[in-house]
Amino acid sequence: MHSAAQASNGYEGDITMPHTRSASSQNAFFSPQSAFYSPSSQQTIPTNQVASSMELLSNNPFFNVGIKAVGDSMKDITGKTVNMLPNEMKKSLSSIKDYFAVDQIYVMKKLSLLLFPFRPRNWSVGYSADGPVPPRVDTNAPDYYIPLMSVMTYVLVAGLVLGTQNRFTPEQLGMHASSALVWNIIEIGLLCLTFYILNIQSKLRTLDLIAYCGYKYVGMIAALSSYLATHSLFVYRCSLLYVSISLSYFLIKCLRLKILPDTSGSHTYNANGNARRVYLLLAIVLIQPLFIWYLTRHLIVT
Amino acid sequence: MGFSLYSLIEAALLCVNAVAILNEQRFLSKINVNDQNYPGAGAYGNDHQNAGGAKQQLLTLIRSVRTVMRVPLIAFNIITILFLILFG
């Protein structure tokens, strides 16, 4: 029982740690508790409520021992399976960790960029020796934090909109989440297929493409919340138009340097290959507003 | 709008089935006749991206999908048929 009490103290200590570390931008990626708690202080309020309910659970000593055992075995299993993977996948798995290395300043800058990209600025991404720079260092680098959070926020906001129209049931939340996931998979699969068939070799990695395709959910949330605030179809359509224009501008500026050929002439490219790249870039940029419109129109009631 | 992960899996299975049942004789050989003579000619030099490469890539993709997925498709189809019979 003494060791169980120690285990319970250790567990509560792990829970209260993120509150003190919330301002720091350095956190280990893979430990079961810190993977759940993000470093930004904007989210200490939800973690307060989660922490209090977890403390109620953690007063049970058997639960603590069970949690420790499960955590250790999960670390063991994932360590073994990760070591079994081929080397390329190991590299991309560790580089996914880079995509989550964000801090508050980056998130604020990126969000304001997504909603107002029209100021003249430098859009090139810095490169380190090994690969792309993590987003904490360079504002222009893509990340996975904003798309992930905005997908979840989109599901919640969609539930909110349905609630104001008395159409809400809890299954709708799951349905929206799964359909967002499915449409994402379809979109990214089709884009990768198009890249392969048109035989375009560009600096854009698949992981970057996934990040760039996830930025449209921020626009969706903006359009939906403007509709929620005013309940007017005209405001919704105006915000949809503005969000589409700013997202298209943002994507063109970001992807232009990666997909279109280098103008300094260090690579030789076919004339037909250039046209294909332009068409592909246009296709990517035009698909996004289409998705924004399609995924929000069923929530709007005239 | 109400897509689920299961309908995505179903659609993907149907598409891969469609690719697997393309008839070699009637369909693929006709496209191959127009293109087989091309890649031997200008493959030297720094011409990385072929002008007619889209068709070549598509044919390579179709052929590799057929070769790889022939046996696993049988298993997937049997499993899906069983699921549909048991669970509607």
Automatic annotation (TrEMBL), chain A:
Family assignment from sequence similarity: Belongs to the YIF1 family.
Main function: Has a role in transport between endoplasmic reticulum and Golgi.
Domain of life, source organism: Eukaryota
Cellular localisation: Endoplasmic reticulum membrane; Golgi apparatus membrane
The organism of origin for this protein: Adineta steineri
Annotated signal sequence range: none
GO cellular component, one term: COPII-coated ER to Golgi transport vesicle
Protein name per its UniProtKB record: Protein YIF1
This protein's UniProt keywords: Endoplasmic reticulum, Golgi apparatus, Membrane, Protein transport, Transmembrane, Transmembrane helix, Transport
From TrEMBL, chain B:
Similarity-based family: Belongs to the YOS1 family.
Any single GO BP term: endoplasmic reticulum to Golgi vesicle-mediated transport
Subcellular location as annotated: Membrane
Cellular component aspect of the GO annotation: COPII-coated ER to Golgi transport vesicle; endoplasmic reticulum membrane; Golgi membrane
InterPro entries tied to this protein: Yos1
Origin species: Adineta steineri
Principal location class: membrane
The name this protein goes by in its record: Immediate early response 3-interacting protein 1
TM region(s), chain numbering: 67-87
UniProt keyword annotations, A-Z: Membrane, Protein transport, Signal, Transmembrane, Transmembrane helix, Transport
Function of the molecule: Regulator of endoplasmic reticulum secretion that acts as a key determinant of brain size. Required for secretion of extracellular matrix proteins. Required for correct brain development by depositing sufficient extracellular matrix proteins for tissue integrity and the proliferation of neural progenitors. Acts as a regulator of the unfolded protein response (UPR).
Signal sequence residues: 1-18
Pfam families noted in UniProt: Yos1
